[in-house]
Amino acid sequence: MLSSSSPFVYSLILFLSLFFLLLFAPQILPFKKHQQQELEQNRQKPQSLITPQDELEDLHLFHQAVLSASPASSKISHLGTVNPKPKIAFLFLTNSDLVFAPLWQRFFQGNDHLFNIYVHADPFVKLSAPEWSVKANFIPAKRTARGSPTLISAARRLLANAILDDPFNLYFALISQHCIPLHSFNHIYTSFLGDPSSSSKAFLTQKSQKSFIEITSDSPHLHNRYVARGEGSLLPEIPFKQFRVGSQFFVLAKRHALLVLKERKLWRKFRLPCFDLDSCYPEEHYFPTFLSMKDPKGCSHYTLTRVNWTDSVDGHPHTYHAPEVSSDLLHTLRKSNSTYSYFFARKFSPDCLKPLMAIADDVIFRD
After folding, report:
1. In the chain, what percentage of residues exceed pLDDT 90?
2. pTM of the prediction?
3. What is the full DSSP assignment across 238-294?
4. Are 116 and 87 contacting, i.e. CB atoms less than 8 angstroms apart?
């Protein structure tokens, strides 16, 4: 008897299955589609490249640098009758060979007692040692990536190592591997620190030096940059009206460099990974925002590094090539609307080295 009814039962079960599938498919399928979209977004979302171990090591480094600069431990407070020379620390942030090292060597030549060089070279990229005779300090470096807070960490790491290394470093110029100088060393040094022959202990301990960093609130797509990590992600520490942007490259006075190394609150926000990668430039947001909130009158609000954005591609500025290099170009790049002319310029391709060296003495280093 059971066998005779089996075909009917099976047909009924199949019919009911199809009915319920058609009835609930509209509710089930969109949910699965939404899940798929969410998974795809999570795949595209960058994960933080800063490990807890990296964070702890950096915090220890920053703490040591701040302690070393305190009046109780600073060598400056025990100079006696010595007449020291304040120095500029040049901080090279690079993920490729320093192809313009010969030009920078020409720039530094003869001024060994007035500067120090520190290089943060991405350890995940194999680099050739720069061909220069001046001493360059390659600091312990960690991985960096565009559009991530690793570039903030790298800049802070350079600042901390420079402060620990030499208490007479009073200005810290962050430089790209694609940067070139636009003036002689003497011109730049004198503009920041005055005549080196008149340097004194009193100058080294003064607390009024200005920092040269771009700080602006009228940049295009400012709101997109503000919400790159998600709506409200920077609140409550950073209201939109206090959010600022600027150039990645700056020249900080020591007092501001120390403030940056002490800072923790804003860093917890800016270290978050971004959802909107097209608007995510943490290093261009963190430093201008923090220094604008902390000491706006102590900063120039303009950068000393000239960049040509007239034909930018994918967030990269115009790259100069060898045929464009000329004395006219160099003089044009110096011009600015601020108190100072531009001191540095980017972005230059490696093939520019030869023509730049050819006009270095007669143009670049002749102020």
Report:
1. 68
2. 0.85
3. S-GGG--B--S--EEEHHHHHHHHH--HHHHHHTSPPS-GGG--HHHHHHHHHHHHH
4. yes
